[in-house]
From TrEMBL:
It is found in: Cell envelope. Keywords: Signal, Transport. Residues 1-21 form the signal peptide. It comes from the Bacteria. InterPro entries: ABC_transptr_periplasmic_BD, Bact_iron-sidero_bind. It comes from Chroogloeocystis siderophila 5.2 s.c.1. Belongs to the bacterial solute-binding protein 8 family. This is Fe/B12 periplasmic-binding domain-containing protein. CDD domains: FhuD. GO terms for cellular component: outer membrane-bounded periplasmic space.
Length: 350
């Protein structure tokens, strides 16, 4: 019944708009030379002319658009951080809001965006996630050409960046973004080379509370892959190439995975809606796992804990914005957190 009601409401919203999306076969007034076929995770979509009103259904797509100097008209967030209008995006959209300069509609959650709100915006392009938005793909495509790309993972942003840039005629900007990322990775690699030499093995975990959920992060993950990009060796349970970004483990397994350094992706999903402002995001998201780590006997028995070499990063950076800005933030935090260790390594006799 809920699904039927959703379809009826969408139909009403579509009928209320005067510029409803039409399939290429009945767009008689659009020249074929102005159209291009774009391949994406769920198929091929024809996009005509240069889209001007674009909807981003997750932070990754928002970041890609902003990186190309494009302002979207609507946005859906992965977590329920802010309800209501984005009247102060710099305080309501984590890490990316300060780059939004035009009105942008709140379309709800990435996993279940408001189709009616999207239709009211009369977009000419919709960008989303092939995992979360696949079920709505047909309905979204009735509103406007829709491109869905793989979301999480190491280096999963460059392909959609290039595809979207081609649609928007911004290929040069895309190449510049990719080159800037390459330079940032190389600069970080050189800056922390002494640390990597002294402490080559890194364990990366993700958790909210150790006793409730604990994940071993693999090199297929966005941040896990970045750690390997800058020279570290990520500790794993197998020598085989990982097929998923994380593996569920128990805290009792940690002594078998002891490493020189430990990085923990921390999150607290239930407190997102209580945050008030995104300026408090890092403290809000890391407090629970930091307390859990400090109070856990097994965690404190690890050599990295005893040597004060355990570092925390918000899971939001690694999984919500696995894109150019997410990489920049992760690399910046990596260097900042390793400053004291770098000073110690540089003072040590060679």
């Amino acid at each position: 019944m809920r699904h039927i009601l959703k379809l009826l409401l969408l139909g009403c919203a579509l009928c209320a708009t005067s510029a409803c999306h039409q399939t290429p076969s009945n767009q008689g007034n659009v020249s074929a030379s102005n159209c291009q076929t774009v391949q994406h995770e769920v198929g091929e979509t024809q996009v005509c002319d240069r889209p001007q009103r674009i909807v981003a259904l997750n932070p990754k797509m928002l970041d890609i658009l902003l990186s190309l100097d494009v302002q979207p008209v609507g946005y859906a967030e992965v977590f329920p951080i802010h309800r209501g209008e984005f009247d102060r995006p710099s305080q309501q959209i984590p890490y990316l809001g300060n780059r939004i300069t035009q009105p942008i509609a709140n379309l709800g959650a990435s996993s279940e965006p408001s189709l009616e709100a999207i239709a009211r915006l009369k977009p000419d392009l919709i960008l989303g996630d092939s995992g979360q938005n696949k079920d709505e793909y047909a309905q979204l495509s009735q509103i406007a050409p829709t491109l869905l790309f793989e979301y999480v993972g190491h280096d999963k942003w460059q392909e959609p960046l290039s595809a979207i840039a081609q649609v928007l005629g911004r290929e040069r900007q895309a190449q510049a973004v990719i080159e800037t990322h390459r330079q940032q990775v190389e600069a970080t690699r050189q800056a922390i080379a002494p640390i990597v030499k002294a402490y080559p093995e890194v364990l990366m975990l993700a958790s909210e509370q150790l006793t409730q959920s604990l994940e071993l992060v693999t090199s297929a993950d966005f941040c896990g892959g970045l750690l390997e990009d800058v020279g570290f060796q990520l500790v794993s349970r197998s020598n085989e190439q990982p097929t998923s970004i994380v593996q569920s483990i128990s805290v009792e397994v940690l002594p078998q995975l002891d490493a020189n350094l430990i990085f923990i992706q921390g999150h607290d999903v239930t407190s997102f809606s209580q945050m008030g402002s995104v300026k408090n995001l890092e403290n809000n998201q890391l407090q629970k796992i930091q307390r859990s780590w400090r109070s856990n006997t097994i965690a404190q028995s690890l050599s990295a804990s005893q040597a004060n070499r355990v570092y925390f990063i918000p899971t939001y950076i690694c999984r919500a914005i696995p894109s150019p800005t997410g990489a920049q933030l992760a690399l910046k935090q990596l260097q900042a957190q390793l400053v004291s260790l770098s000073m110690l390594v540089n003072r040590s006799p060679t």
